[in-house]
Amino acid sequence: MARLEKIATHPGVVKSVKEGFVAVEIAATSACASCEAHSKCGFAESKNKTMDVPTADWQQYHDGDSVTVCIDESRGLTAVWWAYVLPAVLMLAAILALSASGAAEWIVALAALAILGIYTALLYAFRRRLDSHFTITVTKMK
C-alpha cells in the first residue's frame, strides 16, 4: 500500500513573476493568532513573508493572483531539523564539552558562536544541494 503524503499548504498572493520563479507573499501567523484574546496580550505574531517559488509554468501567474503554496510535510520537518535542531545540538555539545574541560567562559561562548558560523557557512555552501531536496509547488486558486 502506497504511503499517502501529508502536504502542508499555505494560501498566498503573487507579488511578482520572473522567468522561472513566482514571488508569493504568505501570512505567517503564530499558533496563538486564533485565540480570542490575541489582540490584547501582545504575544501573537502575524508577519507577511515573501518567498520565490521555482516553477516551470511561471507564465500563467500574474501579480495579485491568489495561490496555494505546498510542501511535503516530511520535507518541512527535515527543514526544521536542518535550520533549528541540528545547530542547537551542535552548539549545546560544544558548550557542554568545553565547560566540562574547564575552559574559560569567554572561550566557551566564542567556540559556540564559531560553530554556528561554520555551520551557517556550510549550509550556504551546500544550498543548491539542499534546495534539490525541498520541492515547493505553487498552484492557482480557482
Low-pLDDT sequence parts:
none
Which class do the helix and strand fractions yield? alpha+beta
Q: Which bin fits the share of residues in helices?
A: 40-55%
Shape: elongated
Largest sheet: 5 strands, antiparallel
> Could you spell the SSE succession in H and E letters?
EEHEEHHHE
Strand order of the largest sheet: 3-2-1-4-5
List the helices and strands and how they pair.
Blueprint: E1 7-18, E2 21-29, H1 38-41, E3 46-54, E4 66-72, H2 73-100, H3 105-125, H4 127-131, E5 136-140
Antiparallel strand pairs: 1-2, 1-4, 2-3, 4-5
Task: Give your account of this protein's structure.
- The chain has 142 residues and is an alpha+beta fold.
- The chain has one domain (7-140).
- The chain has helices spanning 38-41, 73-100, 105-125, 127-131; strands at residues 7-18, 21-29, 46-54, 66-72, 136-140.
- The chain has a five-stranded antiparallel sheet.
- A hairpin with a 2-residue loop joins strand 1 (7-18) and strand 2.
- The longest helix is centred in the middle third of the chain and has 28 residues, at 73-100.
- The model has no long low-confidence stretch (mean pLDDT 83).
List keywords for this structure.
five-stranded antiparallel sheet; elongated; about 140 residues; single chain; alpha+beta; about 40% helix
